[in-house]
Specification:
Number of helices: 18
Number of strands: 7
CATH topology of the largest domain: DNA Cyclobutane Dipyrimidine Photolyase, subunit A, domain 3
Radius of gyration: 23 Å
CATH architecture of the largest domain: Orthogonal Bundle
Length: 449
DNA sequence: TTTTGAGTTGTTCGA
DNA sequence: GTCGAACAACTCAAA
């Protein structure tokens, strides 16, 4: 008999909670990854950098596992069908995996768990993707938080409520939060199932072509984290970590990064807490996937203007900071955080286009796309999210440029024709757009529409 | 139950 | 240029 560890959004061998548990289960562990055709077939393009990223990460793990005398089983198909095939091929006692909190994943895992249960096979799940799951940080009345600041306070209280003494390499000892302790997977590497390498499908075999998009490294310097608060808002500078895609697919450990953040930057730690915050919002309020978090905002009459949406997508709005952001996204699969806010505000408030359009476009293009964070960010930009701030906070693209790209470095990098006759005029005048937005929101929220 | 303080990231206007 | 108030009123969280 063997046990199987099922990789999904946790593509690493080190400090992997579920894998560590599996390796301690007493049976040889065969690692598995499934390219889920339900997900892949729904992607709009056959050149998807995320699929390529996953494929690259799997190749790396495959190499590590072969060096350990084992292998990574990589299959392609609908999860239920793949599992049925695997259970025909291997005598499986139990399956281990890390929990995934997105609605589709929850449903998929319920089905797989039922399928396994019919055959008497246990399905063990672990927390790995977040520091705290949705029911670990709750108000005193047992209900979920919907405002970030009190959530973050309770999050930190909980983090520091359990400490362990750790002996460092130089012999000194230090107290560290138990929740951030690494899972020592490598101690149990001898428990992988010993077998010949199993051939994995190529990118082409699962139906995809290389995207041409470069992947950021899974590392960030301590200097950057220390300077994060001072530099993160300037898109021309490399002041942000670019670790998003690695968090998304688990090629780095959230615990390790949180431990470093604790030592180096409160601001950076807060960003990691935001990740948990939006994950628990999605878990408790899954309707946010299609509906505004604040129900009253469902009555805003978004404009129906496909041509305007196309101009926004293409980076041809005539507002250089907006266009620079959209072109960076289209070219690299990444957009600087500050510019994500500006472009999102522009779409929802200047153009009065439905935030779900922008959300879907980012979902298609962003290498680091994460449902919970992307949805939370877009609802925030549209004013309909958990943020208590007023809806009349309309970003002025020119003011934002003055503050965050005063020398037009970022703009010139992505909009070389800026300042020449080839650059388009603004597609909508700022003052007019601002007033139209405020009037429309006000009416809708007063129930006059 | 009531009260109180506060809420990621902003802009505009007038003194 | 700089500063504070207004933008509106509401809901959340905790005491």
């Amino acid at each position: 008999m063997i046990n199987i560890f099922w990789f999904r959004r946790d593509l690493r061998l080190h400090d992997n909670a579920g894998l560590c548990q599996a390796l301690q289960s007493g049976l040889p562990v065969l690692p598995l990854f499934i390219f889920d055709s339900d997900i892949l077939d729904a992607l709009p393009s056959r050149q998807d950098a995320r699929v390529e990223f996953i494929h690259t990460a799997l190749t790396g793990m495959q190499r590590e596992l072969e060096a350990l005398g084992s292998t990574l089983l990589v299959r392609h198909g609908k999860p239920a069908a793949v599992w049925q095939a695997i259970l025909q091929e291997y005598p499986v006692q139990a399956v281990f995996t890390n929990r995934d909190y997105e609605p589709y994943a929850i449903q998929r895992d319920q089905r797989v768990q039922a399928l396994l249960a019919e055959r008497g096979i246990q399905f063990h799940t672990s927390k790995d993707h977040v520091i705290f799951e949705k029911d670990e940080v709750l108000k005193d009345d047992g209900k979920p938080y919907t405002v970030f600041t009190p959530y973050s306070k309770k999050w930190k209280t909980r983090l520091y409520s359990r400490m362990e003494t750790v002996v460092l390499e130089d012999g000194r000892s230090e107290a560290r939060p138990s929740y951030l302790q690494p899972h020592p997977t490598e101690k149990y590497f001898s428990n992988f199932f010993a077998c010949a390498p199993a051939p994995a499908p190529t990118l082409a075999e699962i139906g995809f072509a290389p995207s041409g998009i470069a992947f950021p490294p899974p590392t960030v310097s301590s200097g950057l984290i220390r300077q994060y608060e001072a530099t993160r808002n300037f898109p021309a500078q490399p002041g942000t970590s670019r670790l998003g895609v690695h968090f998304r697919f688990g090629t780095i450990s959230i615990r390790e990064k949180a431990q470093r953040a604790l030592a180096l930057s409160e601001t950076y730690l807060n960003e990691l807490i935001w990740r948990d915050f939006y994950s628990q919002i999605l878990g408790h309020f899954p309707q946010v996937v299609t509906q505004p978090f604040k129900p009253a905002y469902a009555f805003i009459p978004w404009r129906d203007a496909p041509a305007d949406f196309e101009r926004w997508c293409a980076g041809k709005t005539g507002y250089p900071i907006v266009d620079a952001g959209m072109r960076e996204l289209n070219a690299t699969g990444f957009m600087h955080n500050r510019v994500r806010m500006i472009t999102a505000s522009f779409l929802t408030k200047h153009l009065l286009l439905d935030w779900r359009l922008g959300e879907a476009y980012f979902a298609e293009k962003l290498l680091d796309f994460d449902l919970a964070s992307n949805n939370g960010g877009w609802q925030w930009a549209a004013g309909c999210g958990t943020d208590a701030a007023p809806y009349f906070r309309v970003f002025n693209p020119e003011e934002q440029t003055k503050k965050f790209d005063p020398e037009y470095k970022y703009i010139r990098r992505w909009v070389p024709e800026f300042g020449t006759p080839a650059y388009p005029r603004p597609m909508v005048e700022h003052k007019f757009a601002r007033e139209r937005c405020l009037a429309t929101y006000k009416k809708a929220l007063n129930g006059e529409l």
